[in-house]
Structure formats: C-alpha cells, structure tokens
Amino acid sequence: MSNPYKRLKLLYSSWRMNNDSNSSEQNDIKSNSTSEDVYKFQPFKLCLEYKTDIKKAVKYPNNFPMPRSGHRIVCNSRYIISYGGYNPRSVGSNNRVQSNELYKEIWKFDCVHKKWRLLDVANTPPYAASNCCTLIGNNILTIFGGTSFPFGEESGNDLYVLDMTEEEKFTIVTGDQAERGAEGEAGEEEAAAQEERGSKPPGRYGQAVVVNENYLYSIGGTTGFVYSMDVHRLCLTTHRWSTLYNSDLFGPGDPEPRYRHEAVYFQGHIYVLGGGTEARVFSLEDIHSFDTSSRVWATSHTSPDPLSLSYPAPRKCHGLVQAASTPSTLFILGGVGGGDVLDDVWRLDLLRLQWTRLPLRLPNKVYFHATTVSPQDKVYMFGGITCTTSGPDDDSSSGSNETSATERTADLYSTYLTIPRLREICLEAVKYYYKKHTFDQTG
User: Which stretches are transmembrane (predicted)?
Assistant: First the structure.
C-alpha cells in the first residue's frame, strides 16, 4: 500500500478515536446535523478544492500563491506541484517574483490537509511563463522551455530536474550532445545520423512535452516571432538530443506551426490537439499524430458528439489531461479561440476518434489555466485568466490587451471525469470527514 493510503488510514483512525472519546459531543452534533454533513460522491462536477484569500496572499506572500496564468501543474496521489506564472497586476512581493511579475517559484499543495507550501529550492528555472512540466514516476519533476519577460526575448532549452523527495536543488540537463547513429551505419542512414548531431532545440515557449519510457519529446512552440512544429527527442539516460521532424521541411498533411497546443503519447504516436498563433487557432475536427518510429505525421478525422453532432471549438491555451486508468481517453477543459473564452469540457476517445461533450461547465470561462490528473483519475485545475463574457483572442504574452472583464485567479478546483475504484471514493469520504472534523474542533 502506498504512503498516501497509509497516511489516510492514520488520519481516519485519529478521527475515529476523537469521535469515540467525545461521544456526548458527537451526539449533540449528530442531532443538529443536516444532509450537508453527509459525504456525497459527485463526479462530473467541479468542486472548489481551495480558494485563495487574496488579502492574506498579499500580506503573507510566502504562505499563499498569488493569482497567475501561464503556469503549469503536475501531481501524484498526494501532492500538486505548481511552477511559474505571470500576473501584470500583481501586488505584494517576495524574493522569487521577478521584476516583471513572473513567478519564479515552486508551490506544493497537500491534497489531504488542503494547504499550500512554498518550496525553497536552489537553481529554480528562470523561464517562468509558458513552460512545460512533467512528473516522472511519483517524485521526479522536470521543467522544460518557457520564457522570461519581455516574452520571447529570452527562452529556455535546458531541462531542469528536481527530486521531490529532497526538494533541495534543480539539476540542469543541458543536453548539448546529440544522439548519434549506431556503429556501421552508412549511406542515407549515416547522413541522417549526421544531421541529428547538434540538434538541441532552440529556446522556445508554448511547446508541448510528453514523456515515454526513457525519452522526452518536445513538440512545436515559438520564439515569440517564429512558430514551429519541430519534434525533438531527449534521451533521459544519455542526455542526448535528436531531431525527429523539422517543420521547415513542411509537407502535405503536416501540421502547421503553432504554440500553446497540448499533446499526449499513446501507442507509439504523439497526438497534438489545438494550439495556434497570434492570428489564429486550429481546429479539433482533424487530429494530427506523429509516429515516433517512422517519424511521419498523419491526420485523422474525428466524429462529432453523438447528441449535438457538434465538435469542440478551435482553441489554444486550454487544459488537457489523459486518464491514467484508460490512456486512450482524453479531456480538454476551457481555452480561448475565435474571440471567445471557453468554459466547456470535452472527452476524446482515441481508439474510436469520438468526441463527447460532457454535461458540465467550468466555474468560469478560463484560459491559460493549468490542469493535471492524479493516478486515480482525479482532475485538478488551478489558476488562469477568467472571463465573465467574451474575451480576447490571445493572451498577454503575445502582446494583446485584456478587457476589463478578465482577471487572474488562484483558485484550485477538482473533479472526477471517470468513475474511480470504490477505494478512491472511500478515501475521498475519509478526507471529507477529517477536514470537517478538524474545522469543527478549531472553528
């Protein structure tokens, strides 16, 4: 049994002991209880996991994360880790906020005790906006790409690696050596191997990153002036880069260069969803996939929602998660496109290429938010730019002006978009009653 379950069992045992030792008090509480005191499992409903008190965040910047956009989050069964972000209207300061309201900081949220903690980590990456984060295993955090301010003036192309069990110092993987061909290669194969040498990707932001086994793949992105759909691969054991696809050699059927798209790895292919440039966004009716073995792009036409016969609107700056229990199932949340900020949630079955619109909406129209999913298929959404009406077609990092109807948030939401195992539902109930009991005793 993993540590999170052991911890929850201890918390539950402590709660039961307190209940037994205060039976008369609990009887009084029970007599005054309502249906709201009983835990109800509510899938397909966004629940507020944590609401940041902005006044407290301003007063105690080391205790609460400020509202932000362009950040990333990852999670394991117990913790959510957040890196970076941007807020041009930031107030308050600490020693990790750069001069232009970029948050060069790592936050860790305890999903049991519902508390944020700011980590004191050396070598924190300087490129705090529109980077890519992954969690390898349960404890190895990686950060790649991103930009400082002014956006695009300086972007990253080193991989930063942090062991979350130690939380001490990022290791920087420069990956200066390129992956080379095997001995004995000749002719076209040797020429291809020669082309791969020195193929470390240039500094970009807004790219997508996926990890499979010992390889990290970087797809697309922008320098702030030029957009790309290059596919680069980093071997995590040798720290060598190779170029799998050069978008300068754009051919029929290849996806157009873009940024702020999302990508997943499934059965030897990298699937790319959405994204755009400063001037446009790309459709989700046709999905591009990259074969990592043949290094060839393919385009697949999807089927619309069976009830409404509609497709999700084209978008960028959206959230995407891949269900841990069924990797063929993807969910997209919100985003921006065509002049509208979105609050819809869609499911895509990669095996059938079938879209389904889910019967829920996000609490607000939002883009440039961060999403992640736990090993138990619990989806989290943190921060972003919210909009009460229609919003801009782009984000502040590309130079567009925001309307008065937009603001950044630091709220954390969660939901189950699949039905988890009964054990997970029981653990959610334990956390609910533990939190309620703690608040009752202290409140």
Answer: none
Domain assignment present for 4: no
Q: Are 359 and 44 in contact (CB under 8 A)?
A: yes
How many domains does one find in the chain? Answer: 1
Do the beta carbons of residue 291 and residue 298 sit within 8 Å?
yes
Owning domain of residue 343: 39-442
Which segment of 150-159, 256-265, 397-406 scores lowest on mean pLDDT? 397-406
For residue 17, tell me if it sits in a domain.
no
* Contact indicator for 167, 122 with CB cutoff of 8 Å: no
Residue 95 domain-assigned (yes or no): yes
Instruction: Say how many residues make up the chain.
Output: 443
CATH of the domain at 370: 2.120.10.80
Global pTM reads 0.85
* pLDDT of 6: 61
In a domain, 390, yes or no: yes
What is the rounded CA–CA span in Å between residue 349 and residue 345? 14
| Cβ atoms 360, 46 nearer than 8 A | yes
Q: Which residues pair with 227 in a beta bridge?
A: 222
Partnered with residue 108 across adjacent β-strands are 81, 117
Q: What angle do CA 346, 51, 167 make, to 5 degrees?
A: 90
Nearest to 347, CA basis, from 324, 331, 362, 360: 331
Q: What is the number of other CB atoms lying within 10 angstroms of the CB of residue 73? A: 23
The answer to whether residues 135 and 74 touch, using CB atoms and an 8 Å cutoff, is yes
Q: Tell me the two tokens of residue 241.
A: 């880069």
Pair 234, 213: CB distance under 8 Å: no
Cα 2 to chain centroid distance, Å, stands at: 24
Q: CA 274, CA 331: separation in Å to the nearest integer? A: 12
Q: Which of 123, 193, 187 is nearest to 158 (CA)?
A: 123
Edge-to-edge strand ranges of the sheet holding 296-301: 262-266, 269-273, 286-291, 296-301
Helix (H, G, I), strand (E, B) or coil at 190: helix
User: What is residue 383's three-state secondary structure?
Assistant: strand
Is the pLDDT at 398 greater than 90? The verdict is no
- Torsion-angle region of residue 220: left (phi > 0), alpha (psi -120 to 50) or beta? left
Q: What is the DSSP string of 149-182?
A: SSTTTSB--SEEEEETTT-SBPEEE---EEP-PP
Distance, in Å, from the CA atom of 350 to the CA atom of 329, rounded to the nearest integer, reads 6
